[in-house]
Amino acid sequence: MKNLILISLLMAFTLSVSCKEQATKNDDKQPPIETPITEMPTDLTSVLPPVETEVPNVDYKPAFEGQTRINGVKTKTSYDVKVIAQDLSKPWAVASLPDGRLIITEKKGNLRIATTTGVVGDAITGFPDVDSRGQGGLLDVVAAPDFNTSRMLYFTLAEFAKDKSQGSLTAVGKGKLSMDESKIENFEIIFRAIPYYDNSMHFGSRIVFDKKGNIFVSTGERSVMETRPKAQFLDNGYGKIIYITTEGKPVEGNPFINNSNALSEIYSYGHRNVQSLDIHPTTGDLWSAEMGPRGGDEINLIKPGKNYGWPTIGYGIEYNGSKVGDGLTQKEGMEQPVYYWDPVLSPSGMTFYNSDVIAEWKDNLFIGGLSSKHIARIVIKDNKVVGEERLLEKENQRFRDVEMGTDGALYAVTDEGRLYRISKK
Fold first, then answer.
1. Entry pTM
2. How far apart are alpha carbons 183 and 196 in whole angstroms?
3. What gap in Å lies between CA 416 and CA 87, rounded to an integer?
4. How distant, in Å, are the alpha carbons of 113, 176, 236, 262 from that of 398?
5. SS3 230
6. CATH 2.120.10.30 describes domain 33-424
7. CA nearest 236: which of 199, 205, 197?
8. Sign of the CA dihedral 181, 185, 191, 196?
9. Contacts of residue 33, Cβ cutoff 8 Å, sequence gap at least 6
10. Who's near 414: CB < 8 A, 6+ residues apart?
């Protein structure tokens, strides 16, 4: 009798597992199901195979399990995707104002304000002449924490030297939005990532406020072999994370503030081209996503004074197929990425989701992909990537920036001029 009961229980368990496996196989054919986060499976990393199925560019081995090609996850909450505007001129950044509206930079030197229904205002002027060649232009924007009273906005841009033949550099500027919202008043540059250099590549850059009201800024190393090594030296602003006050001064306690041979504004170094930067809403940690060469785009947890390795170590190769330097992926004294992609994502703007509207997205990282043409949803647990999902990959757009709105929706701009709203149904 006992044996009969055991056999019956085993058959029931096997049928249950089989049904679950079949449901997983047919998941793409099922309508989305809204499930509270408390009812989601705890083993998210085992739900789906990795989203990346292409052959990698290199055969480098990761430094630890889960550093690349993590298992996939899939959003269970039903959501809508709408193109709410599509005539923007090469938008580069989208950020939220306290009243819920969106501010959008356009590469050639304009700012626009858009509603969350997609009504886009006239161009707002008041900026200096920007170097809009190639990867330059008017770049990132963020509203000051006290915007409601100060009306101050902060920007990054590719700024020409007075003698344009000397080239340009990544600069941080600020200005006041006029009451009629037609112009930026009293615009001033508060920081320059020296020196000037005459090319149009790898300016970075993103800007984010911390809880203390100070500013983190990312820069690029200007790409070419002549400038690339500067990422490893502290006497310049190339390939760095910068930490400054709203007046452009180094923050007290910066890691190199007492080093006479270093720029005291530097927070971390050894970066290639960081166009993704945000602060984790729960832990307060600073995270970045960094464009690598061919293969080897990275997610990094940024710590003060640390060296993130470029161009000495990395998981990519040159575009011509040769090794970068000695082809090293690890070296003592240099940080490993938390995660990397091969083939690349081409990460641009990113945001941590900090809302209960779509509860399963809480504290997830959303990164715009350029050449990959999708938005990557990255699930992080205990400072490790435990799941990845691709959103909007059928849209065939280069996603330049992603922002969480005050309404709990995600907003994204693309190089092709679209403004997307991704919201709960």
1. 0.89
2. 27
3. 8
4. 21, 31, 31, 37
5. helix
6. yes
7. 197
8. positive
9. 76, 78
10. 91, 395, 397, 398, 399, 400, 420
Residues carrying an active site annotation? 202
Cα radius of gyration (the chain): 23
pLDDT tens-digit readout, 44-69? 444 799 999 999 999 999 999 999 99
User: Are 126 and 183 in contact, with CB atoms under 8 Å apart?
Assistant: yes
Q: Is 413:94 a contact under the CB 8 Å cutoff?
A: yes
Q: What is the pLDDT of residue 311?
A: 98
Please state the domain extents for the chain: 33-424
Residue type, 91: P
The answer to whether residues 304 and 267 touch, using CB atoms and an 8 Å cutoff, is yes
**Residue 168, amino acid:** S
CA distance 58 to 66: 17
The β-bridge partners of 399 are 414
CA distance 317 to 185: 45
The residue among 368, 352, 354 whose CA lies nearest residue 407 is 354
**Alpha helices, H only, 229-278:** none
pLDDT score for 32? 35
Tokens of 129: 């002449």
CA atoms within 13 A on the CB side of 224: 7
In angstroms, the first-to-last Cα distance of the chain is: 52
By CB atoms closer than 10 A (0-12, 13-18, 19+), residue 140 is: buried
Q: Which long-range contacts (CB under 8 A, 24 or more apart) does 260-263 make?
A: 261/234, 261/235, 262/234, 262/235, 263/194, 263/234, 263/235, 263/236, 263/237
Q: Are 122 and 151 in contact (CB under 8 A)?
A: no
* Residues 6 or more apart whose Cβ sits within 8 Å of residue 190: 172, 173, 174, 244, 246, 247, 248
